[in-house]
Amino acid sequence: MQAQEVRTRLRSALAETTRRLGEAGVPSPSVDARALIAHAAGTEKPLVLLDELPEAFAEQLEHLTARRALREPLQLILGRAPFRRLMLDVRPGVFIPRPETERAVDLMREHVEGSVTEVVDLCSGSGALGAAVLDELPRSRVLSVEVDPVAADLTAHNLERAGPARGRVLEADLLGEIPELAVVAPVDAVLSNPPYIPPEAVPRDAEVLAHDPHRALFGGGQDGLEVPRAVIAWAHRLLRPGGVLIMEHADVQGTAAREAAAGRGGFDLLRTVPDLTGRDRFLVARRAPGEPTSGSERLSR
């Protein structure tokens, strides 16, 4: 196949795939079309640099386009999702990492007093936050906690890829007592993107409603904050003085999250911080000096 024929086929494929995805209501049809075409072509190079296509290119692209037109998330189709400097593996049945969550790592580094070595990631999902910490802080160790066994397995996989032998996973429910977690204190930071959607709220995006596990979306209780309150309680137990909790929440839950942390006590800084779009999305809570944490063993044990 000559280079000119390849370019003609690619232009035609891009126009047709973009049209189909747009008609299906996909929010970014052109961007997604380019990603699907590259995946079908088996390349990570820019499409303009391709001078040949696989024999099964058309059939593969049709299969991928049909899946995306049914609003299956692009990340699940490709099997990966970008997160900060990493390309994480993703799997069906596990919450897909979002770009807005990336700021949690920056907030941790801005607010922790002293160095960051020991980090706990609660409700880890794919392991995105813990993996980013291991990748960007080479001396760090991470303990990720996840209740779902499929997600816990994916977390372990992504942690090992990001920081071999520096991360471990605990499969446990934060709403119960977890002796294995209680003894890791004191730690420098607790990160969490917990489920927080109230029970009556219905996600608007078809991809979220059909493909993200409901257990990773709905936080429990009338306000959706049952699990987030458990995260705050665990952070209170785990953090050293000067350590911080960074917890994502819905843009309408800032006041309630701060009140939950204030009611728990033991924090000398409580802030609600917006994401990059200006929406209130993160609780920052710094552990005050005074009360001892509940344990003394470190994550390296």
Keywords:
7-stranded mixed sheet; elongated; alpha/beta; 2 domains; Rossmann fold; 11 helices
Notes on the structure:
By secondary structure, the protein is an alpha/beta fold. The chain has two domains: 3-70, no CATH class; 81-287, Vaccinia Virus protein VP39 (Rossmann fold, 3-Layer(aba) Sandwich), CATH 3.40.50. Helix content is 39%, strand content 19%. The protein has helices at 3-23, 29-41, 57-69, 74-78, 103-111, 128-136, 149-162, 179-182, 206-211, 226-238, 254-264; strands at 80-83, 86-89, 118-122, 141-146, 167-171, 187-192, 239-248, 267-274, 280-287. The strands form two sheets. Strands 5-4-3-6-7-9-8 form a seven-stranded mixed β-sheet, sandwiched between helices. A two-stranded antiparallel ribbon has the order 1-2. Helix 1 (3-23) packs parallel to helix 3 (57-69), helix 2 (29-41) packs antiparallel against helix 3 and helix 6 runs parallel beside helix 7 (149-162). The longest helix is centred in the N-terminal third of the chain and has 21 residues, at 3-23. The radius of gyration is 21 Å and the shape is elongated. The termini are far apart. The relative contact order is 0.11. The model has no long low-confidence stretch (mean pLDDT 91).
Question: Describe the biggest sheet?
Answer: 7 strands, mixed
Gross geometry:
elongated
Label the CATH architecture of the largest domain. Answer: 3-Layer(aba) Sandwich
- Contiguous uncertain segments of 5+ residues: none
**Total DSSP E strands:** 9
Order of strands in the sheet with the most strands? 5-4-3-6-7-9-8
For the terminal residues, how far apart are their CA atoms? 58 Å
